[in-house]
Structures are given as C-alpha cells and as structure tokens.
Design goal:
With 258 residues, this protein is an alpha+beta fold. 42% of the residues lie in helices and 24% in strands. The protein has nine helices and eleven strands. The longest helix has 18 residues. It is globular, with a radius of gyration of 19 Å. The chain starts with 7 loop residues before the first strand and ends with a helix.
C-alpha cells in the first residue's frame, strides 16, 4: 500500500481509558479490504468523501458525517474521489458498553451526533482525563441504541462460523467446513458470504488480524504474534495487517509503546 507524501495515518491509545484507541488519518487515497473489528468504532469525516460497503449497500461518508460500525460488522473503505479523505475514529472495547447496545444507523449527520463526536476528539486532544471520560460517555449515549433481538442465522451456517471463531489461527479446509452443512463447497461459499459479508477465508483473516491487534497492544513480541495468529512469518502478518489497518504491526506497536 503506497501513501502520498501528504498522507498520514496514526493510531494511538486514549489517555486514562483502557480499551479505547483512536485513529487520525489525513488525505487517504488508498482502499482497505473488507473486514470487521471486534470493537465498536465511530468517528468523524473531516474532509473529502469516503465510500464504504456496509450493511448491504454502498455508502458515501461526506465531511461532517459520523460513521458508525458495530462489533463484527463487515465493511471496507476507500476514497470516493481522487482527492481522498481525512477522518478520525475511536475504537471502544465492547466490555465498556453496558447491556446489549448497537449503532442503529451506519452514519449520522445531525447536530447532536456531530456535536458529541467533535467534543470527544477535542477532549482527546486537549482535555483532562475526566473530560475524556465524560465526552466518551456522552457520545455513546447519543449514538447507541438498544439492540433488537437477533433473528438468527441457519444453525448449520452458524456452526461454520463458530468453527472459524474457535480455530481462526489454525489451518482449516473448505471441504471440512462444507461437511458441517452437508452441502457443496461452492454453495457454502455463497451461503456464508450472503450471511456474514465475507467468504470463510476472508472471515478467518479478519479474526486473525483482530487477535493480532489485541496481542500487539498487550505488548506481545511481533514474532510471537505472527506465530500465534497462524502466519508464516512477520512479513506475512505485515501484508494482511496493512490491507486492513493501513499500517504495519511495528508502527502500531511504536504508537502505543514509544
């Protein structure tokens, strides 16, 4: 992934709140693979327009938009124009969110939503620890809603995902997954992607990268991260990490531990 000289993408911790990270990106002109996060993620588009496939539709996040992603929600991202886009995000561990709550909409542009997002980033930049906590609490209160009861996915297909969750860092064969459902491999690919937004392989890779990110932020040596997450070596981990997060594991590690 090549970046222009004016492009910047920086991750970092949010002071005093374990389980909350932030991202600041400027003049992005590259695209991210379809993936998901194991956190809540929301932010603010500062400039330009981002295109995003989310919830079965192509979205365009213009300046002033608050994009919102629930844990496990599959999406991609890229510039809608040659000028690229600039934005900020926060990533919140679900353990910090009480009860079953979700972002009911993929994006908002109303004054209450943009207001709480701007106040949160102002607090992160120059506020006190108490100010950051208050701003984050207010933002989640405005943006989140009670979760509706899950209508569910066919049991056999859900078992396939459970297998991938449990063995995401181990070799898994398509033939074995198709036997779980008792259908052909081709039909499994179509059914799984229709239900979860990713093929089994891409789903596995997104789970691996989510685990790798947690291990990196826990201070695990990168060689150990690569091995534990099923990658042949650090270069293999780097390639997948860059496709999803736009930065390398080493740069992410330095942002949190330098």
């Amino acid at each position: 992934m090549k970046h222009e000289s004016t492009t910047r993408i920086e991750y970092g911790p949010v002071r005093a709140i374990a389980g909350v990270d932030t991202l600041s990106a400027r003049s992005l002109r590259t695209s991210f693979d379809r993936h998901f996060h194991d956190t809540y993620a929301f932010g603010l588009i500062l400039k330009g327009v981002e295109r995003c496939e989310l919830r079965g539709a192509r979205r365009f996040f213009e300046a002033g938009t608050v994009p919102m992603f629930n844990p496990g929600e599959v999406h991609d991202g890229g510039p809608a124009t040659e000028a690229g886009w600039s934005y900020r995000m926060v990533y919140v561990d679900p353990a910090l969110v009480a009860q079953e709550r979700v972002f009911p909409l993929p994006q908002r542009r109303d004054a209450p939503a943009t207001g709480v997002a701007r106040r949160l980033f102002d607090a992160i930049d120059c506020g006190s620890e108490l100010g950051i906590e208050e701003a984050l609490t207010s933002a989640l209160e405005v943006l989140l809603d009670q979760a509706e009861r899950d209508r569910g996915t066919p049991t056999a297909l859900a078992k396939v995902r459970e297998l991938l969750d449990a063995h995401c860092c181990e070799p898994v064969r398509l033939h074995d997954l198709s036997q779980v459902m008792g259908i052909s491999a081709t039909r499994l690919l179509r059914s799984f992607e229709a239900a979860y937004g990713l093929t089994p392989h891409r789903y596995q890779q997104s789970k691996r990268i989510a685990k790798a990110r947690r291990m990196i932020l826990a201070g695990t040596p990168l060689a150990d991260v690569a091995s534990a997450c099923g990658y042949a070596d650090q270069s293999h981990l780097n390639r997948w990490f860059l496709r999803i997060h736009g930065t390398t594991p080493g740069r992410l590690r330095r942002a949190f531990f330098s």
